[in-house]
Amino acid sequence: MTYSFKIAFRYFFSKSQQTVINRINAFALFMVVIATAALFIVLSAFAGLKDFGLSFTNSFDADFEIQASQGKYLSLKDSTLFQIESLKLIQAAAPEIEEKVFLSFNEKNQVAYLKAVGPNYTNVVQVDRLVALGDWLSFSGLETVLGFGIAGNLSVGVFDYNTFLNITVPKKNKNTLLGQDPFVTKPSIVVGLYQISEDLDKKYVFSNLEFGQELLELNPNEFSSVVLKTKPETKKADLLPLLAPLFEQPIRLVSRSEQNAALYKMLNVEHLAIYFIFTLVMIIALFNVVGALIMMILDKRGQLKILLAMGAQPQGIHKIFFTIGLLICGVGGLVGLVLGILVVVIQAQFPFIYVPGTSLAYPVLFQMKNIVIVLGTLFVLGTISTAWATRGLSKKVKAYAIS
Prior knowledge:
The protein is an alpha+beta fold. The protein has helices spanning 3-13, 19-58, 78-86, 148-154, 198-201, 209-216, 236-243, 256-259, 261-299, 301-309, 314-349, 368-389, 393-402; strands at residues 64-68, 74-75, 90-105, 108-117, 131-134, 143-147, 165-170, 183-194, 204-208, 222-223, 225-230, 251-255. The radius of gyration is 32 Å and the shape is elongated.
């Protein structure tokens, strides 16, 4: 270890004879601790909120969807479905039909999306566990399962055999003769109500595949898509080459993030905005480090002349104060990071902050990448601020030697 590092460590841990200098140094260290802890806590809190928000869509959306790249419907043979399920990366697969429909019940109307699914659909998406009232589809008869939002808008109850829920779509053959009804309408019995989130509860209606194919006048092998449940960490680039040869028509593979592209984009923009806001807080905190270094240089002015007389080089003295700045940022950052980790771990295990007006603990999520982000940000900004505070110090030291 050179003399520059030894002196830097001594200056960092020793106290100045002037109380104001000690207070400025302590305050600079304290601000770095607080800024680092705040950045880590906020990133962990946002990660918790993001994970909590996505848990609703993750419980409703499949890992991947196979869709036709041309046309609206996908032709799927039973043998093809068996081949898909036989792939090592696939845990379960199920065809589905999705179409926009018009609902009517007791003179009340609403537009929704019909999801016609088969018995093995729940192996991919466990939507049956989301049914809060009534039962899931028995796949026998004209049954439907609605969201609580749709049921509230239409005033629909479960197992009401006196009034049917009518589902209407335009006829597939648009060359309808004058006087003929251009729509297809099928009655259904509501057997259950699911509850996920306010948006999804107002959007989807579930029925069986036969119901959907008859309503939309589709062939038995025509579907909107095939939903997939895959092994963890399965990537689209690895899966698509295995699936494409199984189909006679061009297909595209849609991941869960692509199914909710707008939601993921919004969350990423919010994450970036929060990061920049609290990075600005860290920049303001590092101005205190700049001030502390400048005051320390002025305070040690007499000792610098002694060092120069003993043969120290101006570059070595510059390195002393540059090292002190890095020590303030490094020690303050590590203490702040430990403090932030403790707060996050305690909140995760023994919640003490709750969402206002509820008994729900504020969600936080400990992630290693947040530690890397915080330390990387502090290192870059700390180096820049320290270099700016000690700029031109070598020239000033030479002037001290002359005087």
